[in-house]
Amino acid sequence: xxxxxQCPSVPPSAKFSQHVLIQGRxxxxxxxxxxxxxxxxDGATERYExxxxxxxxxxxxxxxxxxxxxxxxxxxxxxxVDDSGWQRLPPTDAHGVVEANVRFSDDDIxxxxxxxxxxxxxxxxxxxxxxxDSTAAPQRRPSAAPVQAVAELLSxxxxxxxxxxxxxxxxxxxxxxxxxxxxxxFLKTFDAVPGMAALYQGWAKQRxxxxxxxxxPPELHxxxxxxxxxxxFPVSSVHLCPLLGRDRANFKLRQVTSLLSxxxxxxxxxxxxxxxxxxxxxxxxxRKHPSQVLKVLIRAVMAEDVENIEKARAAFKxxxxxxxxxxxxxxxxxxxxxxxxxLYEEAQVYLHKAVTGYFxxxxxxxxxxxxxxxxxxxxxxxxxEAAHNFQNAVITNPSFPKGYxxxxxxxxxxxxxxxxxxxxxxxxxxxxxxxxxxxxxxTPLYWRNAAVLLSMTGDQQSxxxxxxxxRQADPRTAAAEEALGGIPxxxxxxxxxx
Length: 498
Fold this sequence. Notes:
The structure is a single chain. The protein has 498 residues and is α/β, with parallel strands linked by helices. Among the domains are: 159-332, 3-Layer(aba) Sandwich (Rossmann fold); 338-495, Tetratricopeptide repeat domain (Serine Threonine Protein Phosphatase 5, Tetratricopeptide repeat, Alpha Horseshoe), CATH 1.25.40. It is built from 17 helices and twelve strands. The longest helix has 21 residues, at 44-64. The protein is globular. The protein starts with a strand and ends in a 16-residue tail after the last helix. The relative contact order is 0.08. Mean pLDDT is 78; it is low at 1-16, 61-66, 130-138 and 359-363.
């Protein structure tokens, strides 16, 4: 879904806008039992102005300007020197939103890094076509500058996390009532629930995708996305509910179900809290889609709130207890069935089929067998055997960047684990990292892992340079990792199969 840029040619009245903000602020403080600006920190007024303006502007726009039937156009690959590549989208709906499938040309597809992650997107208002002279060229609003965005490319399989926002990752205190919600939404700094960013980063290192679903209005998309990034939460998509939308009560059920249907071969962990109806919604989804839901995790927002906690537990009656958990501390979460064990078992079958000729040469390459089996061996602790498998993968196919990437991680980690350090293994690992980058210089992951390995070996200057290349290629992921403490200390591995 793409938000509709506001139309500069019919701007809301500045006087009306300011009047609405003032009236809204007075109403807000009356709702808070006569509280005043002096009861909050110096940034409260600024935060109110920013967040409330977004919402009031949206609410008043229908009075001043019909947002339906606005036409947008989109192109991929980021800014270009020419004006080519734009594709017209269907008209926006009453909330200024458009949803569409778009086909891109072969030339456009060449602009996408097919091996890894993200693609730049530009959206702008289309030509109006509003002209009296039918022979005249359509006119574009001069101030309708393109909006920059980043779209993440997801493989059809793998696993993802679908997460609530309020009181799951962001402190909103819904359980304290409307006054607390208003304060935390409009006046206070957005605070993260302790431990959740680290939990999600752990899943991100296993190549999980992340989808946030909340009944917060789309007008808060910007502040919420900034919060998630600054606090170190990985983000793939954010799905919010229009403030004046119909059937808001069933929004989460509808949106999560839609995500599962969009990715029928992916499996998901669903995360919510006990303050609202997350347990009931997720339990219903699990019963309807048992094969797609790995586990449901419900955060107990107040340990002493026994009634809501028991209500959450009751929602899962009849469902295997290994498939859901109510938790207080993220550190207490029991992960879904060991991925290492499952991957090892899958790899044994995979390798057996390869060796016995079950796969045809058109569907399987020898280097893939060595590579993926090596990964599984690494994750079950058979590190030296894993390194040999990665080595065999790149010997089989010297133009195999994934093999060099994982070989680099394995050799450096093995070299550093020796006492004293095995300098030869470390050097061989760094050479493998260079080879991965030389084969696929536009793949952000290889720059990231090179920075991690160089930092581990003490070459901070080279590590910072490599990390800068990673940041340029994938700024969103880099910012999320930096928020947790700078250049991380662990590699990201690549799988062919899940």
